[in-house]
Model the fold of this input.
Amino acid sequence: MLCGALTVLILPAAALELHRERTSPNDLALTGQLTGVPAGEVRYATWKDLRALPTTKLRLTGEFVPGEQEVTVVFLTELWNQLPRAPGADTLLATCADGYASVFKHDFIARYRPFLVLEINGLGPDRWPPPGLKFNPAPYVISVSANVEPAVAGVLDVEHKKPWGVTTLEIANFSDRFRGIFSGLWAAPTPASAAGRETWINSCACCHAGPAQTFGGTKSAQPFAVVQAIAGWNPGFFKKYVRDPEALIPTATMEPHPHYTDAQLSALIAFVTAAPATSTGTN
Done:
């Protein structure tokens, strides 16, 4: 929760400088649709260059450890404006050191105002974790707050829009990176399947890659085909597992989602199983 007023530090606008070589473990890797950068190559933004962008100081309660913390952030809207984006780029894909991922479409960035954390209580990532936190969230954290934008409170699985340990941002075209779940068996979904697809993109893709090389995190070791087989073989088991994984498999590492309704889980199953398959295209 955010409390207190926002302090905006107005700095001269300047395009973010990108470097060919990494200079520090705290450099942010940037890849994807960047003007002047060959496909597949990576560029780096230093913490110092990011800190030179227009920043905002927020006071957050319970964001990292109990109690109030002051964080210095750059809003993704500002970062987006400073990046040399190629035509068609409309999405930021964040990936983390542990394989976790998060999807930030441009309309989400504009609507919910996510931000990149640069400092916690005046300390940069070279001096993290903050006292009281065992897990180091470095080099970067992306977060959202209902006190910055009240509509955040209504976002399903909003915690999936708060990745820690962010190492890389891919500047992407959403249609290209998610083509696999908008074509072939998923080209003409039912309303339920379409709703389930949105849940997949904004939640499940944090740990699971989709079919046909559709973007997703690598934190889960389960290929999409395995998830699909379980959902189709035993929908009841699938629902129970999503809601409380450890109740069925004590060694499960997936986060529980007890807040999902039967309708939401049925929609997710409809998407995952591509049922009914209304397209004759290939997967």
